[in-house]
Amino acid sequence: MKKEKAVIFDMDGVLVNNNPFHKDAWLRYCQTFDIAIDEIEFFKNIWGKSNEDILNFLYKNLLSPSEIIDHTEIKEAMYRDVFSASIKPLNGLYEFLENLKIAGFKMGIATSAPTSNLNFVLEHLPIRHYFSALIDDSMITQGKPSPEVYLKAAEKLFVAPHNCVAFEDSFSGIKSAMSAGMNVIGVTTTHSQEELQMIKFTINDFSKIKVEDVEGLLKR
After folding, report:
1. Which residue is catalytic, options 10, 136, 137, 169?
2. Domains of the chain: residue spans and CATH
């Protein structure tokens, strides 16, 4: 019997190199609301986290659920505004997705981003048809590094987590996928290869990775 296999992608920093634009949007947001934050705090408490976790950090858990929703959309509208003119896929993505499809891989997206941002990317890039599972922050109760988002993606794909390979760029995302029991390939858009030394396999983009590389991880 043929074993089902899947590749699950984070979105930000993986499908698109939008991290500089998210950073700009958060800094613009903090400036708008007179919130002081330095570079160290930014990467420790904001990078790779869900908007709810970020806003709870910035406001010391004082925002109501409805206020979190409102402030999330304010920040994300800023992000879409600064990114819309520059959006493009990570190099080699289209060919890699097509090769995975030909090889029989199921594919999904597991992101901490809100639905509006997921739709924003999929409206600008012609890749929606490749994915059978789209999981965003509206579908989970705990953001990364909790494994919930990856477990839900695997469940929707009907593939066991140990038969999945995840592509991630952030520490919290890597921990999330590993905790779900998945093999992980690191993407060095946010952290260097040296910083991702807990990952045996890293890529700069999708231009050189082959389907055989992914299949090799699942055979270990």
Report:
1. 10
2. 6-17+89-218 (3.40.50.1000), 19-83 (1.10.150)
> What does 56-74 look like in DSSP terms, one character per residue?
HHHTTT-S-HHHHHHHHHH
What beta strand segments (E) does the chain contain?
6-9, 106-110, 133-135, 164-168, 183-187, 202-203
Which of the following is catalytic: 12, 53, 136, 169?
12
- Residue holding tokens 């093999």? 183
**Residues in the chain, overall count:** 220
Tokens representing 40 are 């160290």
Hey, what amino acid is at 163? N
Encode pLDDT of 160-190 as tens digits: 999 999 999 999 999 999 999 999 999 999 8
The verdict on whether 12 is a catalytic residue reads yes
Q: Which of 45, 10, 4 is nearest to 150 (CA)?
A: 10
Closest to 130 (Cα-Cα) out of 122, 118, 138: 122
CA-based end-to-end distance of the chain: 19
Give the pLDDT band of residue 1 (cuts 50, 70, 90): very low
**What kind and span of H or E run contains 218?**
helix 211-218
CB 181 within 8 A of CB 23: no
Contact 106, 5 (CB under 8 A): yes
